Amino acid sequence: MVQERPIGIERRLSAILAADVAGYSRLMHTDEEPTHAKFAALLANAVNPAIAEHRGRIVKNTGDGFLAEFSSAVQAVRAAVQFQKLIKELTIGDADETRIAFRVGINIGDVIVEPHDIFGDGVNKAVRLESIAEPGGICVSASVYEHVRGKVDAEFADIGEQHLKNIAHPVRAYAMIRDGGNRASETGRTRQVSPPHFSVVVLPFTNLSGDAEQDYFVDGVTESLTTDLSRIRGSFVIGRHTAFTYRGKVADLKQIGRELNVRYALEGSIQRDRNRLRVNVQLVETETGSHLWADRFDKPVADLLDMQDEIVARLANTVNAQLIEAEARRAENTPNPDAIDLIFRGRHSFNEGLTSSSLTQARLYFERALTIDPENVDAKIWMAAVDVTSSSTFLTDDLPLRLAAAETILLKALSHAPSHPFAHLLLGIVLMHTNRAV
């Protein structure tokens, strides 16, 4: 049953800008009244005009900062760049120990709107991004970066996946590269950041049919595959707008991997004659350029939209399994695996077959992951998956105990990720096995 929206709740998609003064408590403790006066002057002369010029609104002041809302990510970033530059100019003569500098975080999210405040996970991420920004800097989420790339007078460096306080999953973040010495240090920092786990770009598929009228179908496969892969939990998939900048270019996959900071690239071609459609696809590890997997699909031509859905579904499922296997192999060679490495190894063991040995091995990996990161939702859910699968296939003698353990850990996981579909599926199976399904 579809849950009805509570009466009076307004929601909308917004670009959220969170800002605060770095070291505000120290500044107020040292020189309270001058600090307060400088802060108010910077808001009036730099921040408020920039936000108004770019059609944003100050939602609320937070004592040492503020929260603003925009209808456009581009406008939010332009406003932040503008007031950060002006604040730097206005405070250039101040001593280091008394200079006021703002940190800014920007995210896109679906927010709950009230007259004098906004709420939601999107707001929380903006606030956490602000907390990792440097004084005078701007830190944006990957979703913001995809919208503003090439559209604002600023460059951003990929600083990788960030584990933010009270945010369940890592957030890919980008930091503004500033002038002077900061540029070298930030770009150097970028070069040292390893590509995230499960990061992939779907390059535009090539139309080999010699018929430009088929471009729409080829592009549709590329776009739909990008969308389906991005729905995989824990994946980082480069947006279609960025991926399509490589259309028609000779692909140096190692260079593309470095430019986009991704581990894998998926490329392919589609060829259609009168009666058949052929799809060639390959998954490449960008660091080495080695082919991890390749396949070819031949289908009789039928309804193109139905065929597109079928091709994308088959590709997404297969690529998902191949990426898990590739990440598991990489983790085997990692001297100090983290929780995510161990989860991928566990999932690979889980995928190897419904045998007692593979499921036992998978559970050991998930237990090790929870030892490193006790609150990891994915490790909890996959450990429950092992128990549920062992019970469903009668590979365990302690069925009631395993089901009880699975239910306990699933309820804990759902308290942190209440919309996790796989967790709900597993919990439903537990309820069916214990005759409590309604």
Sum this structure up briefly.
This protein is α/β, with parallel strands linked by helices and 438 residues long. The chain is built from 15 helices and 14 strands. Helix content is 48%, strand content 22%.
Q: So what's the CATH class of the largest domain?
A: Alpha Beta
Tell me the CATH architecture of the largest domain: 2-Layer Sandwich
Q: How would you sum up the major sheet? A: 8 strands, mixed
Structural shape: globular
Number of DSSP strand runs = 14
List unreliable stretches of 5+ residues.
Answer: 180-192
> What is the mean predicted local confidence, pLDDT?
85
Kindly state the percentage of residues in helix.
40-55%
Ends: how far apart?
13 Å
Oligomer: single chain
Q: Give the CATH topology of the largest domain.
A: Alpha-Beta Plaits
Number of domains: 3
Tell me what you see in this structure.
The protein is globular. Helix 10 (304-332) crosses helix 11 (339-351). Strands 1, 2, 3, 4, 5, 6, 7 and 8 form an eight-stranded mixed sheet that branches. Strands 9, 10, 11, 12, 13 and 14 form a six-stranded mixed sheet that branches. The protein contains 15 helices and 14 strands. The model is unreliable at 180-192 (pLDDT under 50). The chain has three domains: 10-192, 2-Layer Sandwich (Alpha-Beta Plaits), CATH 3.30.70; 199-327, Rossmann fold; 339-433, Tetratricopeptide repeat domain (Serine Threonine Protein Phosphatase 5, Tetratricopeptide repeat, Alpha Horseshoe). Strand 4 and strand 5 form a beta hairpin. The protein is α/β, with parallel strands linked by helices.
